[in-house]
Amino acid sequence: MMKLFSRLGEGGRQALILLGVNGIFWFAWAFGCYQTVYLQGVGFTASNLGLLNAISSAVGIASVTFWGMVSDKTGSLRRVLIIVLAGGALCYGLIPAIPTGLAVSQLLILCLVPMVNFFRASMSPYAENILVRNCNELRLNYGILRGAGSFLFTVGSLIISAWLPSLGVANTFWLSGLLMLIPIILTVFAREPDARPARKPEKGEKNSLNLGELFQNRAYRVFLVFGFLFYTAAACEGNFIPYYMESIGVDSQKYGIVLAYRALLEIPFLLLMVRLRKRFSLRTMVLGAVVLIAAESLGLGLMANSLFTMLLFCTFFGLGNGLFLGSSLNYVYELAPSHLRTSAQAFFTSMASVAGIIGNLVGGVLFDAIGAKPFYLSVGLLYLVSFGVFLLSQGKKSGQKQA
Predict the structure, then answer these.
(1) So what's the pLDDT on residue 212?
(2) Average pLDDT of the chain?
(3) Is there a contact between 38 and 96 (Cβ–Cβ < 8 Å)?
(4) How many CB atoms lie within 10 A of CB 182?
(5) Cα(99)–Cα(376) distance, integer angstroms
(6) What CA–CA distance (Å, rounded) separates 143 from 330?
(7) Which residues have CB under 8 Å from 132's CB, separation 6+?
(8) Which residues contact 295 (CB under 8 A, 6 or more apart)?
(9) pLDDT band at residue 38, thresholds of 50, 70 and 90?
């Protein structure tokens, strides 16, 4: 096996390594998606959860920005990814150790869980970042590699959903952290993407990043505005699904089935990404993705009344999210100067975190105030607003058709 591995070229070896990093990362992540269900079980209302997620999103802003600047200044995305994976896995596994039977339990959770997010908020963005950049630099098929991640997330979600009644929700935290050791080890062998400063500083000059160069790009600024609206809706859509399930009489412990199905439907567009990029611009694909994602929330708000009908409308989300994953990160990659690509992704992720604060604070209160179905109808309309802003913008239509 090792002999065969050594015979592969650099691209082939890295494809296998990145397949392992990305695939096992999402497999492990599937085991750690039950924080909302856990908190719901210990008495958190939708409003309480919204407040917690808003605080966590604020920490996430500092997280992705800090680690992005560390990566660009040191020229090592790989080292940063190892740190955030290890820190996030360890801290997340300790969440069930927070006492839940005390009068101050909810206050403790509100204080300590956001601290975990200093690492956890950066795990997914930087796992995606190393994959996107290596695929672009080595001309690997991003869609196939990312599709494998979605497939393994589906497998992991189905496994943990079946195992959950006997395992218990609290044990998913440490189990997810344990599984994360595999991508941490594989990342050590992953290729370091090009991450050099634009020029070497002169003697006595500080090695600083010229972030103004990034924000002078009007297309990037427009995409940040779009991202704020889109991720505000996404925060509302994703974080309250267990509460929506409860409202229509579906056991929230079947949440893993919903996640698995949506992840499975991401795969078709990811696998077709190379062909799609030959025919459509990345900007057009982002717009198409938003329409599909909005259709899920509109369906939940208007017609869903069982697990089956939920899954029917989740089909649109899965397809749309696959298209969004394959286009949005590559769109940011193409807009940014080569020496600021990690920071560009970090600031876009930070915008998502800012949106997460608004989405969670307003979303939690709104969910409790107007009920599940009107809430998800409102979310679908907000997705369409983000679509309109991006469609009508006069920003540069980047994201050229590529193989």
Answers:
(1) 67
(2) 86
(3) yes
(4) 16
(5) 33
(6) 11
(7) 142, 329, 330, 333
(8) 313, 316, 317, 320, 380
(9) very high
CA–CA separation, 13 vs 11, rounded Å? 6
The amino acid at residue 152 is: L
Answer whether 0.70 is exceeded by the pTM. yes
**Which residue type does 206 have?**
K
Tokens encoding 363: 């979303």
DSSP H stretches of helix in 94-248:
105-138, 142-167, 171-179, 181-188, 212-215, 218-239, 241-247
CB 148 within 8 A of CB 325: no
CA neighbor of 289 nearest in space, from 263, 330, 322: 322
* CA–CA gap between residue 185 and residue 25 (Å, rounded): 11
Distance (Å, rounded) from C-alpha 305 to C-alpha 14? 45
Structure tokens at 84: 């955030």
pLDDT in tens, 229-241: 999 999 999 889 9
Average pLDDT, stretch 280-298?
95
3-state secondary structure of 395: coil
